[in-house]
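Changelog note: in this version the structure field was regenerated for every chain. One regenerated record is shown below for reference.
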Amino acid sequence: MEFIVANTAITGMFTTTIFATGVIADATGTPSAIVYKNGVATADVVTVAKVGTGLYKYSVTPSGFSAANIITIIINAVVSGVTQNSIVFEAICADASSSIPAITTMYGMFVVHRFDTGSISDADSLPSTTLYKNGTATAITVTVAKVDTGIYKYSSLLTGFTDGDEGSYVITATVNSISAGISVNFNYKQETVLVGSGEVYLSDKTTTSFTFTVRDVPSGAVSMKMAYRTYKRSDINDWSFTASITNPVETDTINITGLTEGVLYEVSPVFYSASGIGGNFGNILKLQTLYSEE
């Protein structure tokens, strides 16, 4: 799955074909499209225009997306009486700095059709999904839910994934008594904060908290805190600090709690030497707490 800066213009193309013959052909009327955020339809308006026979372009500038949200665009077209839905775009949103966001919960969508007619159709029962990490099946629970006729969404935590792991969702669906598999692949990223030779990364987030894990400690550091504030507050005195960790070591965790649901924050680690003097702040990251519906 690719990355895209949140709320920037998206343009693409797609084709429509006659299912029975595979011949490219115009749809009946202009195809429509819906934008989804983490599997939930948005009010974003997608413009669809014909370019040539059976060839169309779409464009939309979505709004309300944040880093680590998943954006999906699904096209609906009727060709020779057969309703065909397809995912034409799906990506993980990054913030305006183009930094790759931490992903603690993954979302995605898929579409199923009848294999004899090509028409969009519900599966005979709720499709099943297994999450693989580096080619090995995990025991992580993947939730699958129906969104509309033949359209489903899935979501799961990414417990145990570390930076650079390859993940795959393998979906099995039975439609009109015929089973088939779908695979969706992604590369896992942890958003990292660096300070000198020290490093922490985001290991979890909720509607009201962030959890960071220490990956490396600068030489001479005897304690550390996390600094945080709401985004776009420029006064140095606006920073709040967590309680200190004494003699931090790799794999220690530190929590920022009491945050507000769905709010964008700036965060940074501060390591202290034995003299009690704090070093410079690390890279300042923009992180958003989760919404309760996510």
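Spot check on this record: The chain has two domains: 2-187, 192-288. The longest strand covers residues 82-94.
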